[in-house]
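Deliverable D5.2: sample structural annotation.
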Amino acid sequence: MPELPEVAALRDFLTEHLVGREIVRVLPVAISVMKTYDPPLTALEGRTVTAVARHGKFLDIDADGLHLVTHLARAGWLHWKDRLPDGPPKPGKGPLALRVALATGEGFDLTEAGTTKKLAVYVVHDPGDVPGVARLGPDPLADDFDEAAFAKLLAGERRQLKGALRDQSLIAGIGNAYSDEILHAARMSPFKRVPTLTPDDVHTLYEALRTTLTGAVERSRGVAAGRLKAEKKSGLRVHGRTGEACPVCGDTIREVSFADSSLQYCPTCQTGGKPLADRRMSRLLK
């Protein structure tokens, strides 16, 4: 799933390639991705892109005041084309969901792999009209998101750290991968409960959060859209690396699996050397 760093990189890439260009066609291929119908997609045609923004994991293309907002979900992606194919795309069972064509002949496709379709596209006058955007918590890379603001957010939390970091209404943009990376950098168990954090723990977690996300954004800066997935994977130290050696201590990276996701962690760095039980209600093994 694209998270804050990848969506930030897509925003930068599209700012360079879209702003100042006219949209001539918006072609839906998978109607299921459309979550709004008024204004229609055709209302974007003939408008010039004036800005591209990011709201958490949402990408926002502003075309003369009308916004094309998309959430790529778990298996969605954006593919830039220096020259779009001639003729309209054919509906079918392939991954193509939406095509945006520019007057220059360039454009991009939104695709979604797999059978679970969660890719979402909205056309709105105000990004705040998108329910997922409206409920977002603060952006963790915003200038005013300091340690005091972070501590205040955590003050009323009773959950485990992993769940809290992934909650978009608490903090915007962090998903499964970067929550694993942040907790590894902070040397904290994903199942440590927020109320047990000391002020020193909050400081450590805040520094890990900012450093991890800032580093990922910097690595992605200037990377073409088609290479962002590979760049993300290459920069991850524990997430998706079950069975490999921890780059910090050399211990074997372990995994906890859930119904529709999994997390990765290092026992030596994060849980005092004890493996976590691989079941939905995980506890440290005695």
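Annotation notes: The longest strand covers residues 49-55. The beta strands are 23-28, 49-55, 58-63, 66-71, 76-81, 96-102, 107-112, 120-124, 254-257, 262-265.
The annotation will be released with the project's public dataset once the embargo ends.
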